[in-house]
Amino acid sequence: MAGDWARYWRAGSVPVEAMHAHFSAHVYHRHSHESYSFGVTETGAQAFTCRHGRHVSGRGMVMAFNPDDPHDGHAADRDGFTYRMVHIWPEFLASLTGSPLPLFRSPVTEDPAVAAAIRRLHLVLTGPDHQASALERYERLTGTARLLVRHASGREPARGGADCGGADRRVAARVRELIRASTGQASAGQVSTGDPGPGLMTGELTADDLAAAAGCSRHAAYRAFTQVYGLAPSDYQRQLRVQAARRLLGAGVAPARVAAEAGFADQAHLTRWFRRYYGVTPGAYRAAAGAPGPE
Asked: N or C, which end of the chain is more exposed by having fewer CB within 10 Å?
């Protein structure tokens, strides 16, 4: 898209990723991340929905998404927005702070100190030639993580349906279990670099399948799942496939093979959805992992 650009960085030794981008035409499809995601808007404004509310992050504002926080995103006006984002996986964040996993109550805040800390961390992680030492990067990660945690409360990441009843949660859990089983969801960090195996995302489900697994009507299964997890079942299934593709790309697997292993119709199908979720192409993400190749 004309005028849009994105640069992605991926750590080789710790579960941390970073992005610097400007978007005016790009629109993020509703999705969530496995990681905590912390960002600073540098110019313009980004509008998005998250936790049943509409939000705008303007210049100097901080964005904080919990793992599994469904959200979308687009430019608030025609001039677009520029932002920096750092993704930190939950277990690593806990190891940096020595405290339980935090809950960030608001996805947007105004705090100059936190914004400056995130920006400095991003620059240390992605600066020219990665001039900072590994120790410097770790110390910056630790300091920023502790500052962020002081601005949070609670222990568990927020889910979509904070006030859903127990029956809805049980129905949603059964549907989720079926979707994960049908997509052969592997544990985080497990990838396939050889013949397609347990990670092969070939499962195709119908609304009747979901209803049968949940023991209720199709409508009740759909409503409960969407209420609890904040995504439609089809979006959740696609997200599992995109996340599997991300892990495969991070392991250096070529995008064409990733498309087949992750359950996409073809490479173009993978590229379209990967960019709608992450803002960069599969080839750009793979290159950030140090394995450049054709897209």
From this structure: N
User: Which of these three, 119, 150, 181, is where a domain ends?
Assistant: 150
pTM of the model: 0.75
Domains in the chain, number: 2
Q: How far apart are CA 47 and CA 71, in angstroms?
A: 10
Residue 295 lies in a domain: no
Confidence of residue 205 (pLDDT cuts 50, 70, 90): confident
**Angle made by CA atoms 180, 183, 186, in degrees to the nearest 5:** 70
Q: Which residues pair with 54 in a beta bridge?
A: 49
Query: In the 8-state DSSP scheme, what is residue 75?
Result: E
- Which string of b and e fits 117-135 if b means at least 16 CB within 10 Å? bbbebbebbbeeeeebeee
Q: Which of 243, 226, 237, 233 minimizes the C-alpha distance to 278?
A: 243
**Structure tokens given for 227:** 């209420």
Please tell me the distance from the alpha carbon of residue 210 to that of residue 207, in angstroms, as a whole number.
Answer: 5
Q: What is the pLDDT of residues 7-24, one digit of tens each?
A: 999 887 789 999 999 999
Range of the domain at 259: 166-288
Strands 28-31 and 16-23: unpaired
CA distance 37 to 65: 5
Alpha-carbon distances, residue 222 vs 60, 170, 232, 261, 268 (angstroms) = 38, 13, 7, 27, 29
Mapping DSSP onto H, E and C, the string for 149-194 reads HHCCECCCCCCCCCCCCHHHHHHHHHHHHHHHHHCCCCCCCCCCCC
Helix axis angle for 112-126 and 134-150, nearest 10°, is: 160
* Closest C-alpha among 40, 194, 53 to residue 122: 40
**Length of the chain, please?**
295
What is d(CA 30, CA 239) in angstroms, rounded to the nearest whole number?
10
Tens-place pLDDT, residues 210-250: 999 999 998 889 889 989 999 889 889 999 999 999 999 99
